[in-house]
Amino acid sequence: MIENLDESWRELLQEEFEKPYFKTLTDFVKSAYAKELCFPEVTSIFNAFNHCKLDQLKVVIIGQDPYHDVGQANGLSFSVNDGIKHPPSLVNIFKEIEQDLKLPYPKHGNLTPWAHQGVLLLNATLTVKAHQAGSHQKQGWEQFTDAVIKKISAKKSKVVFLLWGGYAKKKKKLIDTNKHFVLESGHPSPLSANRGYWFGNKHFSKTNSLLQQVGDASIDWKLK
């Protein structure tokens, strides 16, 4: 799998690739993709890394699982391919951006432009069986992506981590909060958002404010 991974990330994560769990994980993924429909496409599994170079990394948004319906997943958390209907969580993300930054609701849900500006859109689990949410959990992906978060925390400084919902908030223990910024809120899913745990968090303007404080360029959250 790692032949599709950006070289800078490959160097950072080489130690993980040599561990027994990663070989087991690789064998599982290869077998799963060979016998059943899985998402995203094999060449897109590491898109979160390939579209966000390590030296440009400024923001991390942690998701849980890729979308599991046909045509949705593109390797970036919360993102969908062009022309795909926006899933409910993404709708609420865009609604919050509308309220927070007074930007128009976008026509597409492909978040690749965010990644190109240094936003790592990282799912805890990078693959999934079609139509079965969570079907590739506890196969080793979580150990790998936890290691990614730890290495980012150690290697980088002044990164803004956005932790949305209980699952993502558990990752806070992997982050050195003396070196980095952590913003927490409820999840953008309708269940959480409609209870008042998401809307009004202003994470997008707050992120830009923090980046400006440390001399980094703001993220242009508008999808053109």
TrEMBL record:
It is found in: Cytoplasm. It is an enzyme of class 3 (hydrolase). Its EC number is 3.2.2.27. Residues 50-211 form the Uracil-DNA glycosylase-like domain. One of its GO terms (cellular component) is cytoplasm. It catalyses: Hydrolyzes single-stranded DNA or mismatched double-stranded DNA and polynucleotides, releasing free uracil. Belongs to the uracil-DNA glycosylase (UDG) superfamily. UNG family. Excises uracil residues from the DNA which can arise as a result of misincorporation of dUMP residues by DNA polymerase or due to deamination of cytosine. This is Uracil-DNA glycosylase.
